[in-house]
């Protein structure tokens, strides 16, 4: 069932395009040290090379400190996408574990986890994250991963719990139980693989939520700290030059929007693939 | 229905209690306090700062401060905001109406626009207007509010000077202007921040609305309506929309916390002195009473709005069987 859903997704053209966009962004991030022409923190000449518009030497221009924007964008992808991917993984893991725990154990564990999710989901995430970062001061990217991942698992837990409860009633679980398989073996061997597509939808949505969150934090100066580049703090450097240096804003905005858009399309098409597979079977 | 409201009210109380307690506990472990170096210059001697701390009870043990604070809260007392030299309630009384205006206008505009766009897409489903608008709404969802705000500020504000880039009203002797001019000036300053938020809301609503309409359009009662000879718009407006708008409202309710978050950033960017900007300033000044009250209120607003959308969604859906 899950395998057919994945195949259905591979046959879908928008999904392939979105996956390609994400792959390109990840590749750019991984290869940044080799493909960027300049050191992202190097300030060659803050007087004459300041705010140079895009040219062949500097494809995306330079910033107020004479740094090459393209190189900063590529190295920024390492930080921004790294933080995003890390917190997505953390959120997906936490969400799957807690959702599965609630569904499989049931009873008061289920009421506790579901109640917790119901309560926490109503709290504006950005508010909590901003409050935490502002009171404790600047965080390293690793702590950002912990913070963003630790606040992003709610939707995944909710989806996993609902899907697992649905699957627990199906015949194949009954059959496995009749063959003497333990609860946890069934969960690990049968249930989790069956809900993997739904987890992937939640993960893609988590990615789409966390990329702007990191950018927003860094943009208000609370996230990734300079001189380490991130998509958000490149924007922060450009915020004072809105009228004179459009390239400082337009390129990072495009990078963020394309990444988020690709994640959203992927989640959308995957959801359609799941629905299509359910209708077909 | 009553049960839904009661559950939601209980949940709201739980959320607020959890948020208040955890923010209070976290602030205990945060470095600094409202009377550390940042307040009123650095030439205040430590003994005076100690006196201030004592006056506002900041020298008490944490547990006692919490019980004091929570006790005052139950009587509606929010305390004193040291960074602003006035009561927290006075600060919030200024800030809340501004945020409600911003978010209210953005929500109303964005929701109406989003529903209309969704209808338009459903009317032309599968053809080029649907696809073109679909690409636009995807872009609208993918571009975070603060980026859209930044772009709008760059072009509409700074470059073409069509709108003011920041603030609540124009500078100068605004108070002397006639009433309607002041109102217009206010609206002119509201246009960019509210417009940006509204576009964000509209894009989200439109995507859900289109999907919900397409889901409903394949049902039998739609075929019945068509076979009566109703036009496509009448089918959409009178039969499909009432059945498709409930889930959209519910989804909007789920998206409200993130909308509140977006509004915080928009206020920060456009210098709109509502709750968001107040919270930012309070955080930087480590004004604990104000931080506590502001986070609590923002959470409360998100929870209340979500409860309201849930109730409205329940009331709108005509085919839902209402138990109890």
Question: What is this entry, summarized?
Answer:
By secondary structure, chain A is mainly α.
* Name of the CATH class of the domain at 85-242 in chain A: Mainly Alpha
Mean pLDDT of chain B: 80
Query: How would you name the oligomeric state of the polypeptide chains in this document?
Result: heterodimer
Q: Briefly note the CATH topology name of the domain at 85-242 in chain A.
A: MetI-like fold
Class from helix and strand fractions of chain B: mainly alpha
Q: What does the main sheet of chain B amount to?
A: 2 strands, antiparallel
Main sheet characteristics of chain A: none
N- to C-terminal separation of chain B? Answer: 7 Å
Taken in chain order, the helices and strands of chain A follow as HHHHHHHHHHH
The percent range for strand residues of chain A is under 5%
Structural class of chain A: mainly alpha
Number of helices of chain A: 11
Question: Helicity level of chain B, as a percent range?
Answer: over 70%
Which ranges of chain A are low-confidence, i.e. pLDDT below 50, for 5 or more consecutive residues? Answer: none
The CATH architecture of the domain at 85-242 in chain A can be named as Orthogonal Bundle
Largest interface: A-B, 41 and 47 residues
Poorly predicted residue ranges of chain B: 320-324
Distance between the termini of chain A: 8 Å
Q: What would CATH call the homologous superfamily of the domain at 85-242 in chain A? A: MetI-like
Write the layout of secondary structure elements.
The complex is a heterodimer of chains A (281) and B (324).
Chain A: H1 2-10, H2 13-35, H3 69-105, H4 107-120, H5 125-136, H6 141-150, H7 154-168, H8 171-178, H9 183-219, H10 231-238, H11 247-280
Helix pairs in contact in A: 1-11, 2-3, 2-11, 3-4, 3-6, 3-7, 3-9, 4-7, 7-9, 9-10, 9-11, 10-11
Chain B: H1 2-29, H2 46-55, H3 62-74, E1 80-81, E2 86-87, H4 88-123, H5 128-142, H6 145-159, H7 179-217, H8 220-227, H9 232-270, H10 275-285, H11 288-316
Antiparallel strand pairs in B: 1-2
